[in-house]
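Protein Record: Sequence and Backbone Structure Tokens
======================================================
Tokens: labelled as protein backbone structure tokens, with as many entries as the chain has residues.
Task: work out the structure tokens from the sequence, keeping to the layout shown below.
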Amino acid sequence: MHREDVRYRVNPRFFFAQNPEIARPTLAALQAPDVIPDARAHQPRRTSPADTRRRVVRSVS
């Protein structure tokens, strides 16, 4: 909103409370899409040499 060199901010809570028909599609657009795992998601995790060194359990003599 602008009014002769004066700027106003519209509070989203107030705006959507007054306009529920606009709030529904806006909130639907903000929802994260469902995640569908691909073939790579089911493969074993790759380990780097650094991970391998961290996971070595050495016996105490």
Summary: Helices lie at 12-18, 20-30, 49-55. Strands lie at 2-3, 6-7. DSSP finds three helices and two strands in the chain.
